[in-house]
Amino acid sequence: xxTRRLRHMACASAALFVALGGAPAFADxxxxxxxxxxxxxxxxxxxxxxxxxxxxxxxxxELQPDVELREPQFESRGYVEGEPxxxxxxxxxxxxxxxxxxxxxxxxxxxxxxxxxxxxWGDLGTGVTLAPKETRELxxxxxxxxxxxxxxxxxxxTTTVNDSDLADNKKVVSVPVVPPATKGSVAxxxxxxxxNNTIADAGEGAADVPVTINGPRVQDLTVRTDANGxxxxxxxxxxxxxxxxxxxxxxxxxxxxxxxxxxxxxPNDNILIQAVRPLSAxxxxxxxxxxxxxxxxxxxxxxxx
Length: 305
Description:
Layout: H1 2-19, E1 67-69, E2 84-93, E3 99-110, E4 112-115, H2 123-126, E5 128-130, E6 135-147, E7 151-159, E8 170-176, E9 183-192, E10 210-214, E11 221-224, E12 230-237, E13 239-244, E14 254-255, E15 258-262, E16 271-276, H3 279-282, E17 288-289, E18 302-303
Parallel strand pairs: 9-16
Antiparallel strand pairs: 1-2, 2-6, 3-5, 3-7, 4-6, 7-8, 9-12, 10-11, 10-13, 13-15, 14-16, 17-18
């Protein structure tokens, strides 16, 4: 009777303890050394990134190039139609990845039309590869074709495959231009350089020689020299001009072509068109044999005096 009552009380106490959230006193403890479950909110491992300039390992992010175009360098002054524009471009790969198919480009934005021949771009016209931190410098010469305003906006650019930053790939520069409405003149002398000193000495002027002037807006304008070899053409639109006399004058004198810029600022009143004697009139060749007379089969030596 007493044993049955004690057993009933023990079962009731165990049930009450479980209902309150406790483990039964007789529950087996967790085995020592067993793994402790990790939280589902634990951060994932971050993969390591290969050092700059090294190819990424499988599973790592691909290293990207960052090609940038630095500020174009050119002589800042007023340009006229027909005049060349010489520009230095610097392109650099600042990213950790190799830059492939790197190209350079250009376009006229406003104010004037400039052109660059495809050959000017070299391998940067077809595409080159730049290693990380590699820099390439390019000098190109463009042609000022036509002015449509008083200032030109020109855009130079570079491209590559998978560039990480496109914001530094373009540069827009302002180029001052002289409008064709600006007028000027060209004047000078055609002279026979008898003393071969590149100076128009007294009495060397060539009279009544036709002089032809060509520029972007003036074609085949011809004036003639006076008795002293002087010529002049007025009211020419701003531009770069070629000034030439006939290639060969009387008595075989050979002339050269002059190039002049009319921009309304610099005077062009002393253009010299030099005429020189042909080489056939300047060179004289003589030769003599070292001895003689000679018989058939003899060896002769020809010497210059």
